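Reading a protein record of the kind used here takes only a little practice. The record below shows the convention in full:
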Amino acid sequence: MPSALPLADPAPADGTLPRTVADGAARRAFGVYVHVPFCAVRCGYCDFNTYTATELGGGGDQAAYAGHALTEIALARRVLDAAAVPSRPASTVFFGGGTPTLLPVADLAALLAGVRDTFGLAAGAEVTVEANPDSVDPHSLAQLAAAGVTRVSFGMQSAVPHVLATLDRTHDPLRIPAVVEAARAAGLSVSLDLIYGTPGESLRDWETSVRAALACAPDHVSAYALVVEEGTRLAVQVRRGELPAPDDDDLADKYDLADELFAAAGLRWYEVSNWAREPAQACRHNLGYWRGDDWWGVGPGAHSHVGGVRWWNVRHPSAYAQRLTAGLSPAAGRETLGAAEREEERVLLGVRLADGLPVDDVPLDGRPTRVASLVADGLVDGRAALAGRLVLTRPGRLLADAVVRRLLP
């Protein structure tokens, strides 16, 4: 089952936010994330807040989900207005999951219309829907585009059947080119998600997957190292010795190979695990997270952030529905970030971007020594550092978390 919620302060029953969240809001972008917590099958490696029909046990009816999410969208408007947050159109909308495309297209269209009617959509807004390759067809993709979706992100993960089987993925890898072509025919920008480091995946297997993805000429690719999360079936298999744990050296080799192949195909990294063909094709919604912008997360377990206040919703769809039906906020807990915590987050997230982190954002205490040592170790680009920005080298990207630890006092 999904992992537990973070420990923090209880959230007010009505979702009220402090007026401080309005400070500087006009300078921050605003995005909306809609979490669709339904999956046909639970993948063994996944600890996301998702549920199959069996796990729902009759609670949190999938057919009623869109109505409850629309209620939260209306609540969001009231809460932000009460906190005197200036009205901003959504510059990005992201439907994630779970498998958003398990919902009828009409429900997704209604949710997007709800965001548009409640907040407005900025000119050229990016609207992304995540999809499993076997949950869409040319007709549904055309319907999504007609509803205002601009971008689809397919969970490809691998092109190698035995790797997909270990991950409990059920789609046919040969279907990927067809759905990419159908999405492109509908006028949608296309992203492919890959996972490397699955137990039993050889370097040749990984190269096969990368080349298969590139053969589809995607606009964007995400490649994530497999993490064995506690509470998942994969974690149990590793603990029992049925499957080997991911190996750090193997993961590094696979990252290096992917980066080389992506670059040769015209895809440039803009975040440690993300590559885009053009700067405009980077995922603007995720960039909002990394840059500390504001977003409202709709749905069970969804996280939100506005002006240094972060909160998260109750996890189970039935509890989520009950709270909203009773006229209450679905927020389960929240935390207010202090100045030191926000400074830490700027370093933690900003250093992952190809634009780099301003050297001035590194805490002053010991700054020259820390930066110089990272340059000397080949983890940070020396020329960029002299120009005032910390930009990770490829070895630095592999050790991004260690770089952050060395930058912070």
